[in-house]
Amino acid sequence: MQHMSNMLLIRVITMIDIRDHKIYFTGKESSYWMQVNVHRHLEQLYYGPRIPLQEVDVLENKNRVQFGSQVNIHEGYSLNTQLLEFSSAGKGDFRPVSIELESDDDSFVSDLRVSDVYINEKIDFPSEYFSPRINENTQQCVIELTDDYFPVLIKLFYTFYSEYDVIIRHTQLLNKSENEVIINKVMSTQLDLLESDYKVLSLNGSWGKEAQITIDDVNSGTLVHESLVGSSSALNNPGLLLFNDESAYGFNLMYSGNHYNSVTHHIDDSLRVMMGINPHQFKYHLQMDEVFNTPLALMTYSNQSRKGVTQNFHRFIRDMIIPEPPFEKPIVYNHWEGTFFDYDHKKLVSFATKAADLGMELFCIDDGWFGQRDDDFRSLGDYSINQKKFPQGIKHTIDKIKGLGLKVGIWVEPEMVSEDSDLYRTHPEWVVGRQDKPRIKGRNQWILDLCQVEVQDYIIQQVSHVIDNYGVDYIKWDMNRNHSDQYSNALKHQKEFDIRYQQGLVRVLREIFYSRPHIFLEMCSSGGNRFDLGMLAVAQQIWTSDNTDAMDRLRIQEGTAIFYPLSAISNHVSGRVNTQTIRHNPLSTRFNVAIFGGFGYELDLNICSKVELDEIRKQIEVAKSLRELIVYGDYQVLKSKLENRVVWQVKYKDEALVGLFQTINYGLQSKEKLRVKDLDPEKFYRVTSIDQALFIDRFGELLKHVTNLKVHPYGAIMHKYAQHKSMDDGKFEAISSGALLSNGILLNEIYMGTGYHPELRIWGDFGSTLYHIREIDYEA
Ligand code: GLA
Questions:
Q1: pTM of whole model > 0.90?
Q2: Which of 411, 535, 580 for mutating ligand 1's site (highest number of atoms within 8 Å of CB)?
């Protein structure tokens, strides 16, 4: 172990270097430095672009004189003017602090000083939460703090992934006395930044409107983003980003319960960022010799601003957090929006036959297969098969679908129970909330108390049985309501509810899925109500939103992709008229948006026309050819001078994909360039539009302007014709250098009501085109 005592001897520059009371983390592009100062406080020295170690003296905090009403630990030295790594209450730091303890007389003053600093021989992550896949090639620095007022040993863990420029922090408390210590607040990370010229980006929203990007200035006070709903929530995602034009800091928490992010502007113009379990509705009673661990918090820095943080997070999460998928990311068919609860064996097999023929790879049987589940009022908690829908049992249907060459998945919502269920009739005491008080419902259901081990065991057993007995390959794990009436029969202290529930959930998921690595797991919580790193440590992807409208999805997916890799973002092409918005997006655009992530279809295949089915077949071929690029590529959002554009790019090895999307169409639009970034300026590339069909019935009475068909534009002949024939839309091909593509090449015009040409972009409202860019050998 490399301890502070022998720090002076160490001269080798490793990723983590400890010497002269200073701790240096050197990443690929970033440096993170701390120092244990003469008062044994842990100071933040530097977090930014990678710099040589010689710079250290320049960075020392200047503490020359005291001023005004300041309270001082030592002459001229006040905690209120220090940049600190972890701070406590009552010793002059008047910003929000990272730890608040309480003793039996409610005392809360605490004084933390460093007692040791070392590099752990073996990476140590708390077992009660999910953690990244252990990477033996990394290093973990531990800083121990003791407190004059409380008999606790606090360990700050810094696990450093230099190749990714990612630091993972967590905090551990050990009660070293016989008396209980109450933890009212303990953060996973705190970062004090010297300057405040950063904007704060967070994701906020609601059901059907997840991950809306919000950008705040913090010029005074504290900005808080938090969740109290029992999941990370669509209201405030745990991801947080601070950025200006040159640089950005990213943060995220590996926790699916109530989280808390705060950014405080300090009077000296510094900023304090904190992230951890929400201290509201939280109080933990730490017993003698007991250890409390916080969840892990990720931090990254990039000098490429937002794009850099996104790419750092994407690479890290893909390589270190998301479990290896058991098979290539499948093209999924889910019947939910096509049927809701109204389906049976016959209907599913008819869909599966079409899905298999079109080239889809996995068929998910969604809600409604169990108990009397023909609506959302009953049967959650029960796992008997719905006899009406599956008179020969569900295994019969699954085998039939598998016989068509598809993998099969099944929907479960194991954390919930309906009042009308055999489970509730047998175990009313398993429901969250006091039995002597009315408990409120959400989507007509209650929550099962995952703080109780019996409940955990029941879920483990039932879901395992479904997987093993029916031979499914994929699980969609849903959770459709926020928490209320938080009370568990298993707990002595009810403010431990959220964390105990989460730990129960982690145990359940681990037991089921760690021993079944052949299962592809998709999480869902009424869409993206639990889109977080806690879930991604066990699942390959998360259903991003119940809103499948391509235009709304542009915002939802763009927000989600700031913090989470495309491979985790599950998207489906849904029906002609969108269920949530009644909008008619072209099939091409529904595909062009959904392809940026885990991809599938969710519509009634039996009502699709021939042209639609032909188009879907082609789309699936394209999706398969782009799968690797989407999963492993570097994603970024490109700027456009047109305000009705959204532009996304993914680049992988020698190819790239650019999606150009139009929201509302305007008459006579300006000339437009296609820009592709981060290509080799010296190389040449072939740019090709991905073929897409233009459906003739989009034109109505404009038909005479675009074809020479002389028929009633809304009549029966036209209707029949449009079912069978389509036209080309926006064909484009060019060869260009990486240098020119970065500057932009001119695209073809947009349709302006004056005639048809296969190379015109006939977009109208909500139109779009995908451009594929591939390096070629080309003699200029
Ligand atoms: C939630 C999910 C949907 C679907 C329904 C089924 O709303 O987000 O995708 O599975 O439940 O009830």
A1: yes
A2: 411
